[in-house]
Design a protein that fits this description.
single chain; alpha+beta; Glutaredoxin; 4-stranded antiparallel sheet; 4-stranded mixed sheet; 23% helix; globular
Length: 294
């Protein structure tokens, strides 16, 4: 185990330098911050305010139909998405889990905890882990031109990766994302027949975006009996319970109808995320309460 830990630490340290540098370079080159036609430029919030700039959306999206009932969002419009790839089997992850819990208190941030499954063989099977979440982590790495993944890893705005327990690096990544990323505001409404609809604006997004529906549990606790965290009581926040591709957004105003059958586990939180291409930068997001939607 000591040999494995040392080897793992060395590989992770090497991978961190390469992957973080590549991610930061891509963030600078592909930011699009100076494009005048972008709908909702985000600015870094004041340190004392958990808010984002509320700029009315432009474009051709019509106002919600009269028979639609707006569904209140559980975050500010166009939140900055932070994805933590973590595991109950990783001894380095609890500090990152705790930091994600702090980020969950900020309304302008949408933090999500994806539990990966490649630590399960160490001796403890993470009950929240899913191979699909591991594939998402690898897809993010490949989209940035690399192949190295690790835990705890945070991916900010689908574009910048940092060590999830490094508070300074996380704050810096958020500031960078706010200054260089631009998000488009979504409307979430309910039809008269009870169906939940997400409305996307007309936007010059360039590359089609993949739309994901995420369901998550706001908090969960586990008593770990084996593996690197044996004997510890762990708490995780906004732990993802399902992830499903539900459509594409090519740029013109469009509506996506969500089905209750697509929300596995039926937890208390839902989010819609739009990644350019499939795992590129996130250009739109919205979070809402599951029980208020269905």
């Amino acid at each position: 185990m000591k040999l494995f830990s040392a080897l793992r630490a060395g590989l992770i340290g090497l991978g961190l330098v390469v992957s973080i540098a590549a991610a930061q370079a891509q963030s600078v080159e592909g930011s699009g911050a100076n494009e005048p036609s972008l709908i909702q430029p985000l600015v870094q919030p004041s340190p004392d305010q958990n808010t984002v700039q509320d700029v009315p959306p432009a474009g051709s999206l019509a106002s919600p139909k009269q028979e639609y009932q707006p569904i209140a969002l559980s975050s500010m419009p166009a939140p900055m998405v932070v994805e933590l790839f973590t595991s109950e089997g990783c001894s380095s992850c609890p500090p990152a889990d705790a930091l994600l819990g702090e980020l969950a208190q900020r309304q302008y941030v949408l933090p999500l905890s994806f539990h990966v499954d490649y630590w399960d063989y160490i001796g403890w099977k993470d009950r929240f882990a899913d191979a699909q979440y591991t594939r998402r982590q690898y897809a993010y790495a490949e989209a940035r031109g690399g192949s190295m993944v690790y835990t705890p890893q945070m991916v900010v705005a689908g574009a910048i990766d940092v060590v999830g327990s490094d508070r300074d690096a996380v704050e810096k990544a958020l500031k960078t994302a706010y200054s260089r990323n631009t998000m488009y505001r979504l409307h979430v409404v309910r039809e008269a027949d009870g169906k939940v609809v997400v409305q996307f604006p007309d936007a010059p997004i360039g590359v089609p975006a993949t739309i994901w529906l995420v369901t998550y549990q706001k908090s969960a606790e586990s008593h770990v009996k084996a593996g690197e965290n044996a004997g510890r009581d762990l708490k995780t926040y906004n732990v993802v319970r399902s992830l499903k591709k539900v459509g594409l957004w090519n740029g013109p105003a469009t509506e996506i109808t969500l089905s209750i059958d697509e929300t596995a586990e039926r937890p208390d939180g839902c989010a819609v995320i739009a990644n350019q291409a499939e795992h590129g930068p996130i250009i739109a997001a919205a979070a809402f309460n599951y029980n208020k939607a269905w």
